[in-house]
Amino acid sequence: MSDLEALTVRYQRFSAERDWEQFHDPRSLILALMGEVGELAELYQWRDKEAELQADPASQLHQRSAEELADVLLYLIRLADVLGIDPVSAANRKLDVAEERFPVDQYLGQAPDKT
Amino acid sequence: MSDLEALTVRYQRFSAERDWEQFHDPRSLILALMGEVGELAELYQWRDKEAELQADPASQLHQRSAEELADVLLYLIRLADVLGIDPVSAANRKLDVAEERFPVDQYLGQAPDKT
Amino acid sequence: MSDLEALTVRYQRFSAERDWEQFHDPRSLILALMGEVGELAELYQWRDKEAELQADPASQLHQRSAEELADVLLYLIRLADVLGIDPVSAANRKLDVAEERFPVDQYLGQAPDKT
Amino acid sequence: MSDLEALTVRYQRFSAERDWEQFHDPRSLILALMGEVGELAELYQWRDKEAELQADPASQLHQRSAEELADVLLYLIRLADVLGIDPVSAANRKLDVAEERFPVDQYLGQAPDKT
Fold first, then answer.
1. Residue in C33, D11, C4, B40 with CA at minimum distance from that of residue A87
2. Residue B37 to residue D36, Cβ atoms within 8 A
3. E strand or H helix at A81, and its extent?
4. Handedness of CA C99, C103, C107, C112 (dihedral sign)
5. How far is the C-alpha of A90 from the C-alpha of C27, rounded, in Å?
6. Under 8 Å CB-to-CB from C49, ≥6 apart: which residues?
């Protein structure tokens, strides 16, 4: 079992022990995920590029980032678990597609345009 | 190397080959993460609880959920990588805290109140 | 001047007096907006449909919803102001389009599918 | 009636004519709001501060920003309407609080810290 699978199983057990599985339908988990993404966004909302890149691992910003990132990951793997999706396999399939879609010579130094 | 670490390294290489590392500062990645969370939310915005729980693995909803979930995971591990954070360790630390904070006997069947 | 324009001007003055205009570039405001949408999502993440519809105007949920809704609106009109966009005109143009795109007889009781 | 109230009433009628009121519970509208905030975030995810400030009103970025901003506003006022909240009054109350909480002399040029 990989470390991410172990985390998924740990969270499953945590939820089952508290009878919280009843709350973990997809819509509720997506709303919860948004709450955590919002907290991550708040950490960086007023910081310029320089400040954020100099972030010291011992700094409060680094610690808080790790905590919010962890919360996002937890709701994400719980959602994947509830939906019966293997998130790492799905992500590898997306990278397979991205490698085809964005050939190195054509996209070198060019961010894909979303406008 | 775990499967999540392998995915992180694969995405690192993908970014380096295209000289896209210059775009991957924390704020940009958080905005990109929001874009993908928004696509996930759109899949479920008008569905009631029943519909979403009956989701068939072969259904279009299941396929699309896997793709959007994958996109969220990819930007999340890229952000963790850029910030020098191990997301699985951070998530395990959060579950350590949650187990203490929400004792089974006190929170049985009770969602923590956010009001 | 409409009440929304008055609010926009009030927020402009609030920002100028504190020399906060320097922080109010589009990306920063979108991150701030995400933070507030996240707080709104947290209020409803574990509530089922019944509970939320019975929400009493005097309840804490109603009060908190009003506060978070207000925060979203404030960052939204600040963003519109910084970008030189009239949000109400833009919204009326979107409804013009939506009325054409979703004819009553074809979409009666049918949510547009996002899958 | 203010222009924002007129927009709210127009959206009410649009929803009633299509029998879409049944979809417009708070959680569904927050998920829809997230979808639109995500589209707004995508427009700016890979742009640096310079590019975005030079945005020409005739540019595609400006047009797209107006459209996404409009979508966010529409779901926001629909949510306010469903919850029985006057968003402009609520926002003015928030600015009353913010003016007290962030005195000019203490916060001049200082973004409030969210770390």
1. B40
2. no
3. helix A60-83
4. negative
5. 29
6. B48, B49, D25, D27
Task: Tell whether D86 is within 8 A of chain B (Cβ).
Answer: no
What is this structure's pTM?
0.95
CA distance B10 to B5: 9
The owner of tokens 């009030």 is C10
Q: What is this model's ipTM?
A: 0.94
Tell me the C-alpha distance between C15 and C51, whole Å: 38
Phi/psi for D114 (5° steps) reads -105, 0
- Do C25 and D70 make contact, defined as CB atoms within 8 angstroms? no
Burial class (CB in 10 A: 0-12, 13-18, 19+), A106: exposed
Lowest mean pLDDT segment, chosen from A13-22, B60-69, B75-84, D53-62? D53-62
Structural domains in chain C? 3-95 (1.10.287.1080)
Please answer yes or no on whether B109 and A18 come within 8 Å at the CB atom: yes
Chain D contact for A41, CB < 8 A?
A: no
Whole-number Å distance between alpha carbons of B4 and B86: 10
A74 contacts B94 by C-beta, under 8 angstroms: yes
pLDDT score recorded for residue C48: 65
Does A27 contact D at CB distance below 8 Å?
A: yes
List chain A residues with CB under 8 Å of C34.
37-38, 41
